[in-house]
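Good day; I would like, with your permission, to put a structural problem before you. A protein sequence and the C-alpha cells that stand for its backbone fold form the material at issue. Thank you for your consideration; the sequence and its C-alpha cells are set out here:
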Amino acid sequence: MSKYNFDEIINRKNTNSLKWDFAKERGKKEGILPFWVADMDFRLTNEILNPLIDKIKEGIFGYSDPKDDYYEALISWYLKHYKINIRKENIIINSSVVSSICSLIRIASKENDAILINEPVYYPFKLSILANKRKAISSDLIIEEGKYKIDFVDFENKIKNNNIKAYILCNPHNPVGRVWDKDELEKIVSICKKYNVFIISDEIHADFCYEKEFISIANFDTNYAIVSALTKTFNIPGFKIAHAIIPNEIIYDNFKNDLDKIGYSQQSIMGLVASKTAMLYGEEWLSELKDYLWNNILYVDNYLKTYLPKIKLIKPEGTYLIRLDFNEFNLTHKRLSDLIEKANLWLDDGIIFGRSGKGYQRINIATPKVNIDLMLKSLYEVFKNL
C-alpha cells in the first residue's frame, strides 16, 4: 500500500505558479489545462516540508552557506544513486543548471565559437549559446528501430567541420527521454577527446530512470563538467539551488571567477535546507513517485494505442516528460497548434526544441492521474475523426 497520495488534487491557481497562473501572459487562454513546464503537481513530503517549517519559525533568514554536512549528503547521494565518487573540492553550489551552462559556455569558448547540441533538446541550451554570442550547431537525433539515437557519423563531422569547442550532453535526454547506454557514452567521449571538445553534461533528470540504469559522464576519463540539482527530483525549483561538479582545476577556478563577475555568492537558506533534507529523508517518497510516474506513462501509451493510434509515443527511458508524434495526421504547424488549443491544452510545441520537433508536442505527466485522463479525453475529442 502506498504511503503517499499522488492522486491528491492541489489547487495551484492564484499561487504565482508559472505553470497554472500565467496563461494570459504567455499568449494562452484563461482556464487552459497546463502540461508544459517541467514542474510537478505533487505536494512536498512532510519529511522535507517539516524542517522547512521549522526554519521559517526561527524567523531569521540571513546569509547562508553550505556546511560539510551538505556536501556529505550530496556525495552520499551520488555514490548510492549513481555509483560514482565525487569530491567536495570539485563541487560548486550555485543557483541553477542553466546559469551554470552559461558560465561553462563562456569558459570553454570564445565569441563566435561553435557549441554542439543534439536537437530536439531542452531549448535553453540553444538560447544560452546564442545569448553568449556563440554558434549553436546541432547533430540531430535520429530514430532507428523505434528508438532515438545519436548519428555518430554526423556527430563527428559536425565537430570536425565546425571546430566545436564544447558539447552540451543531455542525460537523461529532454525531451525524448533517452538514458544513454554505456557504449553510446563511450563513443561520445572518444570523439570529444579526439577533437579536444569539452563536455557539459546536464544530468538534472538522473533520478528519473525507469527500466535502465543511469550512467554519469563522471564514469569516463574525459574533460567534463556536470551540471545538476535536486530541484527536479523533489520539485523544489523555486528554492533556486543547484550544483556543478568540475574535476578540471582550471575550469573550476574559472567557474568560480565567473560567479564573481555576476555577483553571485551565498545560497538560499531555504534551498540548502530543502535540498539537504530531501537527500537525507526523501528516498521513500521518490521511490513511490517513480512508480506513479511510470504508471502514468504506461497509461498514456495504452490509451493512445487503443483510442488514438495515429498519435505515436516512444516510451521514455527517463524523465517525466513524454514526446507525442502527431505527424501521421499530416498537419501544418499552425493547424496542429490550433487543434491543441481547441483541446484546451497547454503543451510544449515540439518546434521550440529544434527544427526536427515539427509535428511533436511535449507533455509533462507528473500530475495526478485524473489530470492525465482529462488531457487524453480532450485529445480524443479533437483528434478522433481526423
